[in-house]
Amino acid sequence: MDVGGRATVVAVVGPTATGKSHLGLDLAEALDGEIVNADASQLYRGMDIGTAKLPVAERRGIPHHLLDVLDVREESTLAAYQERVTVAIDDVCARGRTPILVGGSGLYARAALDVLEIPPTDPGARAAWEQRLETEGPDALHAQLREQDPAAARAIGPANGRRLVRALEVIELTGRPFSASMPTRTYRRPAVQVGLRADRPLLHERIARRASEMWEDGLLDEVRRLDGQGLRDGRTASRAIGYAQALGQLDGDLTRDQAIDETALATRRFARRQVAWFKADPRITWLDHDDPDLTDRALALICAARP
């Protein structure tokens, strides 16, 4: 599809376990589209079961971009993703097809869709702030951020240790407030965002079932294989939900049931953060994940964006 002569990006976002991948496929079939991944963990080769990555046989012959582009030992960075996703989207558009961005990694979706300045990073500076986070706790870091950049402190809050570390790192490296580089809601090219929602009890039920199915489908064997490929050396991959718990089971620190339960709990917490992140974006139109007319409703929204 085209808006004002420029291809429109269609984004399917929302919390985990709401069926984003399958809606993406339906929309790609209807719009002559190709899927562009916006799930940080699905960037990794071999991380399939624990990320609910669609097997090739279930992709309906639709091209998928930015899956399996990183080794588990590599760190996934927002800046590198932004470079890759810009190339992927521009390439799909240049061939006259519709990019269908699918995923629940909120900041990655913003990097794909919006004008976004990504500040520099430094491993040494970040490690120092992470050490302070571990020893002093997030409240102390939030208090410091509140002194140096009140706007960023209000936006981040005291519970998000990872973003607190990033904000203080950026201030140290640039001498500028972190809030000066925080993204604005300005699309890089025309876009339509569809969010999938589910009632919390049902979402929790789906998350628990998915966690159990991961182990039934062989997640422990997948992690054992990735462990031999250096998974523990991967700063990002080794911390992914499900993978960290499976490593704990392999090490004897967790039983199978404990690993599954901890995975479900961590996923529920992640889903709450996803909901809060995406709910803050007024450009997203929300649809019920189990609406029998879901695809038609999403297509109506997309068509309504045409001039």
| Strand-residue proportion | 5-15%
Which strand order spans the largest sheet, edge to edge or round the barrel?
A: 5-4-6-3-7-8
How far apart are the first and last residues' alpha carbons, in Å?
11 Å
User: Tell me about the biggest sheet?
Assistant: 6 strands, parallel
* Averaged pLDDT: 94
Q: What is the radius of gyration?
A: 20 Å
Low-confidence stretches: 1-6
Number of helices, counting only DSSP H or I runs of 4 residues or more: 12
What would the principal axes of the Cα set say about the shape? globular
In sequence order, what are the helices and strands, one letter per element? EEEHEEHEHHHHHEHHHHEH
Q: What is the share of helical residues?
A: 40-55%
Which structural class should the secondary elements be placed in? alpha/beta
- Tally of DSSP β-strands: 8
Explain what this protein looks like in three dimensions:
The protein has 307 residues and is an alpha/beta fold. It contains 12 helices and 8 strands. The chain has helices at residues 20-31, 78-94, 106-113, 123-136, 138-148, 150-156, 161-174, 200-216, 219-228, 243-250, 256-279, 294-304; strands spanning 2-3, 6-7, 9-13, 33-37, 64-65, 98-102, 191-197, 284-288. The strands form 2 sheets. A 6-stranded parallel beta sheet has the order 5-4-6-3-7-8, with helices on both faces. The chain has a two-stranded antiparallel ribbon with strand order 1-2. The protein is globular and about 50 Å long.
